[in-house]
Amino acid sequence: MEVQQALLELYRTVFTYPAIDNHAHAFLKVEHRDAVPFEGLISEASGPALTEDSVHTLACYRATAQLGKLFGLSSTADWEDVKRARKAMDYIQLCRMCMDPTRIQCILIDDGLGNNDLVYDYQWHDQFTKSHTRRIVRVEVLAENILRDLIPLELESEEGMHIPHLAHNFVVRLTAELTACATDPEVAGFKSIACYRTGLDIAVSQDGREMEITLVTIVLRYESLKTLRLADKALNDYVVNTTLRIAGQYGKPVQFHTGLGDNDISLSKSTPALMQPIIKAYPSTKIVLLHSAYPFTQEAGYLTAVYRNVYLDFGEVFPFVSADGQRDIVKQVLELCPTNKIMWSTDGHYWPESYYLGTLQAREVVYQVLEASIRRGELTLPQAKGIVKRAFFENANKVYNLGLSPCEM
């Protein structure tokens, strides 16, 4: 087969094969469509760094051109033109305009992002896909909700607060709720944001006394501030270990935020290289490293190559990273990572445009990287097509036990 004909067939496969979005978040409700700065589409920054600086990135310039074309704007349209155009559209029409070209067949939605009053329920998104949307349960949020229920009951009891009793009830309830989620067909897997809270250097050994001391701190903070956020290492590590144990028993994957995130993260503790002890401790549990672990992609690729239970998601870098950066990231993913262990996601959130850009840019970059390999004689066409089908659909279908067949889109 001539090279040009092979590349044309590869192009068709890359841009038409259905996809499973293995990690995303919900859309904003129509009445809240402008509740969050739209610049969050192209940056993880916050405050002036988001609204003033992010619009001067290569990622923003590229997104502006691609959305301007989608919305039928002139080639000279700027970021503000894009914002005005989207605001003037009927919301469902906007959602369909963005979702129809993606060929996303199934979405796995992490519904623990927060601002739940602002966003739709995960099942609402079924109208844009051929297959039913499934949940990803964020375990730190689950644990926080349990403590919000238990702490007031302990404080109001006749005996008063008894930390060992609170700890026991927390352990029992956490185990029960994680097990219920693991056996729920609506739940495709779990997610941990330990990376944000206390870092990925998660301890395997558990100290019950240390956890009780941590609970004292949490209770005192709750009494004084009426807020509750799981950000104390002993308790966070316990939650993650319990999740990994139960998930392994029931065959549900556990996703971990790694690398790229907002300024709430400690970058030095966001590398998945810190996870080696926890990976070794739970060899029967499928662990998915999210977001390409950028800028630690090579470390993540190494872990995926040497540990049977580790998988690598190459999402979120679309559209947050420039086109050149995205090509380098995909190349780094493919340096070591077995192609039966890579999965794609949009990390789409709030705006339908995030799904559109996350898909369009990923397909463009995957094609460009594989095209170059074919031209150099490093890949055959069947090998390249196999990579595409596995990365966009087959691997996620198998890892999350979805039981889907690719649909004509």
TrEMBL record:
<protein>
    <recommendedName>
        <fullName>Amidohydrolase-related domain-containing protein</fullName>
    </recommendedName>
</protein>
<feature type="domain" description="Amidohydrolase-related">
    <location>
        <begin position="174"/>
        <end position="402"/>
    </location>
</feature>
<dbReference type="InterPro" id="IPR032466">
    <property type="entry name" value="Metal_Hydrolase"/>
</dbReference>
<dbReference type="GO" id="GO:0016787">
    <property type="term" value="F:hydrolase activity"/>
</dbReference>
<dbReference type="InterPro" id="IPR006680">
    <property type="entry name" value="Amidohydro-rel"/>
</dbReference>
<dbReference type="Pfam" id="PF04909">
    <property type="entry name" value="Amidohydro_2"/>
</dbReference>
